[in-house]
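Human: Can I borrow your eye for a moment on a structure tokenisation matter? Separate attempts, laid side by side, tell us more than any discussion would. Could you pick a protein and write out its sequence and tokenised fold? No explanation is needed for now; the record alone will do.

Assistant:
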Amino acid sequence: MSGNEAEKSDLDSNGSIATGNGTAKHQRNGATLTPLSADALMRDIRQRTRTDIEKHKDKRKSFSAFQADAKKGTEHRAGDLLQSSELLFLNRFCAQSDYLHNDHLTSHRPGIIGKIISKFKRKLHSYLFFYLDRYIGSQRDFQINLVRHLNDSAKYIDGRDMSNFWELIRKIDYDVQKALDRIERINDEQTGTLRTQEKWVNETVRSNVIELRETVSRHSAEIQTLESVARGLESIVSRLKNSQLSSATNGSSIPTAEESHSGTKSVADYSYLLLENRYRGSEESISNRLSIYPQIFKESEKNHGEAPVLEIGSGRGELLSLFKEASLPAYGVDLDQAMVEAASAKGLDAKLGDGIAHLRGVQDHSLRGVIAIQVVEHLTRAQLEDLFELCTKKIRSGGRVVFETINPRSLLALSSNYFRDPTHVWPLHPDTLEYAMNLAGLQTVEVRYLSPVERDSQLRPLPVEEYMSPRLAHTIQTIDRNFEQLNSLLYGYQDYCIVAEVR
């Protein structure tokens, strides 16, 4: 029995299928069906599909193409398309081929009827698949290629999105870094400009303040000079008046050194007193500067008793006043009658005469010490040697000898202080004066430098800023060292004193 004949015998109980000339008849339960064909079956399927679509079109969601909005952005992320549930569904059902088998075709009817119906369904399925094999195969190939294309497209789109994402990240990083560099550059430029302006303002203010201080200091010095000159003139006028009154009553006055030798009477010369009042400084400032000397003689007070200190060239008596305040016995000798009158008017012991000549007439080893402020530059070399020799004879052992003079190592002091006084003979270098005193037997205790020049009046060093290169900083440091050397030469200590002891 052939396969077709077997099929006929299997279907004769419930119906039959007769084939011939491409047509078939299906009989079931005594009813005759229209001949079956692939075209008719497909038309029927399409008609039912259109009917179902038309019936459920209200429930079906309409398709709308996705439109990206650059302003609003999108929730789609790289990788979402490849991992989407729709694509996973297509891949899963495309890989399944269960529908090619008919084992799943069953009937809900029990018993022999259900089996017959199931067998009929399977036969019908096999028959349909036999005629629709090429169509189903082509559809399957289409579906497989479509799913493969969708997978490749999803991979491409996700890869492109990922590449665009990282490219965008790199561009954002580049733009942010570029913006930060520009901000930093602008900040550096603004900071540099601000520092330059701040430095300029500070230097301008500092320069103006220094200029203002110098102006105020100059005016203050001029005012003090005028006050000193005024007080000197007042004292001179007072002394002249007292001298006239004294002459009118008893015809006597203070004798001068000339009168002592010639027996004649002369009028005091006040020109040098006026010179000191004008240029040396006020009595208050001179007293402050000379306040270091009483302590020097206090230190050598032991075993001297009431022995006095002799000041040669006592002038207006500033130092004698300090000795008096320190309870040290002292007196002064000066050649200028006006100076002696000024000191005597203060109640100080000041005598008119030559200091060296007076020292020659003093008893040996009777003095506590000798001090001469701004005197030795008025003496010749022979007078200096005579003075040193007399000091070793007239001062007790352990007594002090103090000589203060202008420091010639300072060009400012030499040009301004030394040459201003026409009675100066020769400037004395500290080494020269110390050497001459040591030759005479006076043992040097110390050499002290006095009257420093104000820092604002000296050459100011250049500042070394942080932004300068090492080479520029080294150059500025070298210039500053040169400034220090120039300051020591030009603006060094204006005075010095040598303290010696008699052995």
